[in-house]
Specification:
The complex is a heterodimer of chains A (314) and B (275). With 314 residues, chain A is α/β, with parallel strands linked by helices. Chain A has helices at residues 46-54, 75-81, 99-109, 118-123, 139-150, 169-184, 220-227, 271-279, 294-303, 305-313, and strands at residues 8-17, 20-30, 35-39, 61-66, 84-87, 157-161, 188-192, 205-210, 213-218, 231-237, 253-258, 261-266, 284-290. Chain B has one domain. Chain B has helices spanning 3-17, 20-43, 50-74, 79-84, 87-91, 97-129, 135-165, 169-196, 199-202, 205-213, 216-226, 231-234, 236-244, 248-272. Chain B is mainly α and 275 residues long. The chains are: A alpha/beta (314), B mainly alpha (275). At the A-B interface, helix 2 and helix 3 of A face helix 1 and helix 5 of B.
């Protein structure tokens, strides 16, 4: 079976709506137990990609294989969706149904025994509100119900669009622990998120979409290396430290200075040289090393366009 | 349970919760009771048994009410799910688009079956309380309920087509009202008016009967009036049916086609669409 090799495989995957290209020639592969962070501003093609993976939309060009099958509205496509958990952005439910009823309904549609999913309600902390209508739920509770339904039936692939929106930091952490557990069990996870920093160390691969094009697809470390973004240092001192006198490596530059704090920036390979130079001074009280964040990397690979566009529009 | 059954069952449950079942049943039962009680008064002097009179009245009642209830049950079935944002999640499950429509149709059909069964059953019981009923009249009541359900399924399917064809719930509601007005009220009036004006003598017989029979509401009425002894005296349409000589099986086939064709059209539209 080739689905052991790749959970998701696309070749030249393209989708146009009318004359507007939403995706242009996408080549992606996600293996079992791998987590892919899909980044991009609104309209970059993230949601379109999810719809193509689910077989809800049809590609205009190229091929897409999920768990070894072509997604679509036929028997094979439907069977495939049984193994895919999906959480749409801004998930919505029938307001009059209770949480438990909603979960049971969706579980039955997946051909799963509904009772087995009562445990899911507990896992997302909804067991107490399970018999209240969804209309009484807060945004966070709806999101948790959305996560519960995505986990129904032990999916082999999870497609999560903005999964942690509306969750408080505790639940957010809890959610990522769940994802990590699933990942270890061999579940592939595709995460779309605008909250980029929290994805760090949790994703194996990062794909950055910009206007339907894949501008980057690599591990986070790989992206960092390719971007060669500087490491930043915050040096707190007793007021007597002069950067000129600090004997810093040539590649290091001073990016800011105020009172008892000096900001430095250096290429990643000069990091230790900078640290050695700085720590040799008696006046230095503290040093913070700040590697490039995912936000910085994201901005470097074209994600910053969203900001530029918004400014242009304004 | 497969996807169609799961969706139908959920629709029925929703129907009980939002009191659609209760409202439709109360409406049909209330009016049917009134008709069967009032209906026995003028028939007192004739040989016609009270249930036969009730069946004629009920076929007129059903002719207006069943399509209305059916359209109200399904006009927002698809467009409503889309507007609320629940359609995407549903389609991400192992549910075919045809399954979705079939499930909604069967769920609505179950709600209608309850309303018709209870409503017409009560009317029959009320009529039976007033005197002995010949077996033929019970048969007519049974046929009325069965063909009423088929009429309901036809308009459920029409409602699903409306719901699939438009992009907003408000539009769907407007279109549903127009469809009801046209198929149930205006079409009938135009057909009978044309016949009364002598169109039957000018146009070939086949054209006239086809025009009348092709409408689901008229097919339902003709089907039910044909079999009732003495119905001709009680209804203007029975005479028409005898003149037209359309077999009952044809009328049932027309009703069945009104279930299948709109449903197939809705399925085609929904499959073409990308949610």
């Amino acid at each position: 079976m080739n689905d052991a090799a790749a959970t998701i495989e696309t070749h030249g995957l393209a989708k146009t709506y009318g004359a507007t290209p939403a995706l242009a020639g996408l080549d992606l592969a996600v293996r079992p137990g791998e987590t892919l962070a899909l980044l991009g501003h609104n309209g970059a093609g993230k949601t379109t990609l999810m719809r193509l993976l689910l077989g809800i939309a049809r590609p205009s060009g190229g091929t897409v294989r999920v768990l070894g099958h072509t997604p679509g509205d036929n028997r094979a496509g439907r069977r495939l969706r049984r193994h895919v958990g999906f959480l749409p952005e801004n998930v919505a439910f029938q307001e009059a149904r209770t949480g438990r009823e909603t979960l049971h309904y969706l579980a039955r549609l997946k051909g799963d025994r509904p009772r087995a999913n009562d445990a899911l309600l507990e896992r997302v902390g909804l067991h107490e509100a399970a018999d209240q209508p969804v209309r009484t739920y807060s945004k966070g509770m709806r999101q948790r119900l959305g996560l519960a339904q995505a986990l129904v039936g032990n999916p082999r692939l999870l497609l999560l669009d903005e999964p942690t929106s509306g969750l408080d930091p505790m639940l957010r952490q809890h959610f990522y622990q769940e994802v990590e557990t699933l990942r270890r069990a061999g579940v592939s996870v595709v995460l779309c998120s605008h909250v980029l920093t929290e994805l760090e160390a949790r994703t194996d691969r990062v794909a950055i979409l910009n206007r339907g094009h894949l501008t980057a697809w690599d591990t986070l470390d790989g992206l960092r290396r390719r971007a060669a973004l500087p490491v930043r240092f915050r040096v707190a001192h007793d007021g007597g430290l002069r950067p000129e006198a600090a004997d810093l490596p040539a590649a290091c530059r001073v990016s800011g200075q105020d009172g008892n704090t000096i900001w430095l920036a250096a290429p990643p390979d000069a990091k230790m040289a900078v640290l050695r130079a700085v720590s040799g001074h008696d006046g230095v009280a503290d040093v913070d090393v700040l590697p490039a964040t995912l936000d910085d990397v994201y901005a470097h690979f074209g994600g910053g366009d969203a900001v530029a566009d918004a400014e242009e529009a304004a | 349970m497969n996807a169609v059954g799961v969706i139908a069952w959920q629709e029925l449950k929703d129907g009980f919760r939002n009191r659609w079942v209760a409202a439709a049943t109360a409406l049909l039962a209330g009016l049917a009771l009134v008709l069967s009680l009032v209906g026995t008064a003028p028939a007192g002097g004739t040989d016609v048994d009270p249930l036969a009179v009730a069946v004629v009245s009920l076929s007129s009642l059903g002719n207006y009410l069943i399509p209305l209830i059916a359209l109200m049950l399904t006009y927002d079935a698809v467009v409503g799910e889309q507007e609320r944002g629940t359609l995407l999640l549903l389609l991400a499950h192992p549910v075919g688009r045809g399954h979705l429509l079939a499930g909604k149709l069967l769920g609505g059909g179950a709600i209608l079956a309850i309303a018709i069964g209870v409503g017409f059953g009560l009317a029959g019981a009320a009529a039976a309380a007033g005197g002995t009923i010949p077996a033929a009249s019970w048969g007519a009541l049974g046929r009325l309920a069965g063909s009423g359900l088929l009429l309901g399924l036809a308009f459920l399917a029409v409602g699903l087509l409306v719901s699939t064809a438009v992009r907003q719930v408000a539009t769907a509601a407007g279109v549903a009202v127009v469809v009801w007005l046209f198929l149930v009220v205006l079409y009938d009036m135009a057909a009978l008016g044309a016949l009364a004006a002598g169109a039957g003598e000018v146009l070939p017989r086949g054209v006239v009967s086809a025009f009348l029979v092709l409408n689901p509401a008229d097919a339902f009425r003709l089907f039910n009036l044909a079999g009732v002894e003495g119905a001709g005296a009680l209804s203007g349409l029975a005479g028409v049916q005898e003149t037209l000589g359309v077999p009952r099986s044809t009328l049932l086939a027309v009703l069945a086609a009104w279930v299948v064709v709109p449903l197939a059209a809705a399925g085609w539209l929904l499959r073409r669409r990308e949610a």
